[in-house]
Amino acid sequence: MERRELVILGAGPAGLTAAIYGRRAGLDVLIIERGMPGGQITITDEIENWPGVQHASGQELADSFRRHAEKFSPEFRDATVTSLEVRDGRKVVVTDKGEVEAEAVIIATGANFKRLGCPGEAEYTGRGVSYCAVCDGAFFEGEEVAVIGGGNTAVEEACYLTQFASKVYIVHRRDSFRADKVPVERAMSNPKIVPIFDSVVEAIEGGDMVERLVLWNVKTQEVSTLPVSGVFIFVGTAPNSGFASSLVETSPGGWIKTNSRMETSVEGIFAAGDVRDTFLRQVVTAAGDGAVAAMSAYSYITEQLHLQKILLEPPRVNALFYSSIDQEQVRLVGRVEEWASSKNVQVTLVDGYRNLRMMEKLGVRELPTAMVLKEGREVSRASVTSEEDLGLFLEL
């Protein structure tokens, strides 16, 4: 089986940033992507909140991310990830083009737009139903279209569609938009945009192509029809995490839970960007996540795997876990080193403050603690406060 140091799943802002940081740290990096790199930003017409760039299209920004990552020569591979597994402690990425064993994995697969689930949606997808205004807006030159949703994406894409459509209805289930103030003001000042509040789509109907929407007013219970040639649906996102949802811990909806270091519930597996359970999902936050995830993965690979080799693989290990921020324990380590040298005994010193994962794995809850391991299995442990305590524990 192919073996790599760091495998990044996804080539959006989070994945590409992780690749840049991973390669600069000297890691062997493989990026597995499906289709065109760049993530959701490639279907965004305008981006005005990327620091240092006052205005750019999503595709322009995505292209610049890709060129920047390519400068550091990670390997890009076009494949579909079907599952992520842990086999006997080994992390294995299963794709439609084979399996890859990784020392660390960063999940940066992003999210996709949700479906409405109403009658006609699936039938007319590609025949008037779209989830990408930038991709399909030009097909509706001079036509009347509807945008479904009330968040930033829906309102911003409605503004974009006014370049082509003669009228753009924004259908929203509430009595006001959830979008930020600036895009809402821009939309409401556009004479081509007509909001329809307190309404949901009951069905999408037509012949060969979309011809109308069936709407239900949630306040008056009135059912009406709205003649349109196109329907653009922006009602939220769902994470692309299904391949790993049975492995790592997720929140309701499938968003992957992490700590501030982007560590998931599984050691050596990290998550970054929109796939994560996080308060804000933006290009800038995804890039920040990617940087943190890459450096956390580097730390894991260089520190945790080194510890595994010196602690869990030898036939016998005498270990002392201590805290490097406790001065008394630091002084104890100095005395233990002198004592071990005089007794010709090997003692492996582990800074528990910096290696919490290994402490968790071995169940070490207090410091300092001495432990004897044989081929990774605990034989005995004891709390020690002096080199004499350690000698008694080791029966020396």
> CATH homologous superfamily of the largest domain, by name?
FAD/NAD(P)-binding domain
- Overall residue-averaged pLDDT value: 93
What's the total number of strands? 21
**Uncertain stretches:** none
Shape: elongated
Q: What is the fold named in CATH at topology level of the largest domain? A: FAD/NAD(P)-binding domain
Strand content: 25-35%
The count of helical stretches stands at 10
**Distance between the ends:** 45 Å
Largest sheet properties: 7 strands, mixed
Organism: Thermanaerovibrio acidaminovorans (strain ATCC 49978 / DSM 6589 / Su883) (Selenomonas acidaminovorans)
EC number: 1.8.1.9
Cofactor: FAD
Keywords: Disulfide bond, FAD, Flavoprotein, NADP, Oxidoreductase, Redox-active center
Summarize it:
It catalyses: [thioredoxin]-dithiol + NADP(+) = [thioredoxin]-disulfide + NADPH + H(+). The protein is α/β, with parallel strands linked by helices. It is built from 10 helices and 21 strands.
Q: Describe it for me?
A:
Its cofactor is FAD. Pfam families: Pyr_redox_2 (PF07992). InterPro entries: FAD/NAD-bd_sf, FAD/NAD-binding_dom, Ferredoxin-NADP_redctase_2, Pyr_nucl-diS_OxRdtase_2_AS, Thioredox_Rdtase. Homodimer. α1 packs across α7 (283-312). 28% of the residues lie in helices and 29% in strands. The mean pLDDT is 93. It has 10 helices and 21 strands. The strands form 5 sheets. Strands 1, 2, 3, 4, 5, 6 and 17 form a 7-stranded mixed β-sheet that branches. It has helices spanning 13-24, 58-70, 121-124, 133-136, 152-161, 181-188, 283-312, 327-343, 356-362, 387-393; strands spanning 2-9, 29-33, 75-78, 81-87, 90-95, 98-107, 111-113, 129-130, 144-148, 167-171, 193-196, 199-206, 210-217, 223-227, 230-233, 237-239, 269-271, 317-322, 348-351, 369-374, 377-383. It folds into 3 domains: 2-112 and 237-308, FAD/NAD(P)-binding domain (3-Layer(bba) Sandwich), CATH 3.50.50; 121-233, FAD/NAD(P)-binding domain (3-Layer(bba) Sandwich); 314-393, Glutaredoxin. The chain is α/β, with parallel strands linked by helices and 396 residues long.
